[in-house]
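Incident log, structure service

09:12 report received: a user says their structure output differs between two submissions of the same chain.
09:20 pulled the input from the user's history:
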Amino acid sequence: MFDESPMLRELIGQVVVVDLISTYVCLGVLTGVDPLFLEMRDADLHDFRHGAATREVYTYESATLGVRHNRTRVLLRLADVVAVSRLDEVATT
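09:34 re-ran on a clean worker, output below:
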């Protein structure tokens, strides 16, 4: 049986930033976690190959201006996740 991480469980329902090992970052509401995936809703899956902003600048702008969601639902492979943090904990100063 899967014993979900208490640290991830406390983030469910929160707007989070998920940094991935690739050129992608995902921002949105964390709605679920299982042994293989994070589930996010009202998410912005952003590929940094399609813009000039760095990961830090893009995340900062999203924290100050709001998440520009382009996915109703997205599943992210846990194996590809580097970090998860609440968007309201992103430094904006």
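09:41 both user submissions now match this output. Likely a transient worker issue. Closing.
09:42 reviewer note: The helical segments are 6-9, 55-65. The chain has one domain: 6-85.
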